[in-house]
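[stage:ingest] chain + small molecule (manganese (II) ion)
[stage:ingest] validated
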Amino acid sequence: MNAELHHGLRIDGDRLLRRIEDLAAIGPIDGGGSCRLALTDEDRAGRDLVVTWMRDLGLDVTIDAIGNVIGMRAGRTDGPPTMTGSHIDTVRTGGRYDGNLGVLAGLEVIETLERNGVQTEHPVAVGFFTDEEGARFPPDMLGSLVYVGGMAVEEALDIEGIDGAIVGAELDRIGYRGTSPCPGPSPRAFVELHVEQGPVLEAEGVTIGAVTGVQGISWTELTITGQSNHAGTTPMELRHDPGYVAAAVAAHVRDLAVRMNADGPEGGDRQVGTVGRLELEPNLVNVVAASASMTVDLRNTDEVLLQEAEADLARFVAQTAAAEGVTVTERTLARFEPVTFDDRVVDTVADVARRLGHTVKHMPSGAGHDAQMLARVCPTGMVFVPSRDGVSHNPAEHTDPADLVAGADVLLQTMLSLDGLSLDGATLQRAGLDSEESDR
Ligand code: HGY
Ligand code: MN
Ligand code: MN
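[stage:predict] done
[stage:export] tokens:
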């Protein structure tokens, strides 16, 4: 795919970096990050700021029934837009680039077109999707999942958060339950810029990731119920201790992932497993817990292996619970199969990056992204830039300004290249992802 560079255009890096700072200042936390959990007052303030920027640019702004916000700039012809975007909600300990970079770089791309009087053939759009993180309201990528018809909006509006809040009521409270219908109109193509959130690009000294797809995600919530008792007087053989079972499961999740990778392909880093949430009740030093609530996050680029990991976990939980005499209820919080992006978009990203003089690596994404939902309805791809020390979901998240600007320029030229391509709809998603490849 020979992507031509258009008009020698470059984004305004200072303007982009300024907006990143301005948005990061909403919901600030120690360490330079932000906390804007989905549909909180901080999320509303972030939304209001970005919508103001969209309107100042003269974009046609729509808000849909799950709170997704899309700003559109007209092209010479009507029809579906070439779209970019990401999310501006964060985890509680968020950095300033996760999601925010993709939305603000998309805005910067459109402002660059506007200021240089460049008219595209097709409309261009930038959006932010509701609740990408899923940290408050599971599953993750909720807004984009509803946008592509993966979940009925009525079901999404009824979701209860970890704090007991309800999605629909929170959307009303912050004034972002819009009138545009869900599912939304499919773009002609979608490309998302995002920080890698992992160590690969930095370790290999590569500036741009041409993302080939997203690994499968499995989130399970376990509620373990036993018998609360006195920590001092209860003999070990008489205990039914949810705290013990929860700890055993957490240790097993780590052992399972390590074992699968050891058995896997050379240098296998495919299986990951995380216990991110673990709460005991009553959570007191001298009381055998009555109950434990925990989450298990399993991911793999290979669907068959991910299912094997899920089955192994289920067996271990059942055996351990039976031996300890506790009961366990399981609830699936999120379950998405691996997604493969459209070669035409992936190759355009790589070609553009090379033409701009950057090093490029084809690679899958370990993190979930809105792009994995848009891939269901249109040709989709992603652009990665390096994360320092591979750190993310942490206020210390950092990407060098030069890399932020490089990513935004690749996004600009990729969108212009896609504008000139006759994209005849989404390619079928192949099972599994391309393995990591050096430059193609
Ligand atoms: O969980 C994820 O991978 C994403 O950050 N929502
Ligand atoms: Mn993200
Ligand atoms: Mn994230």
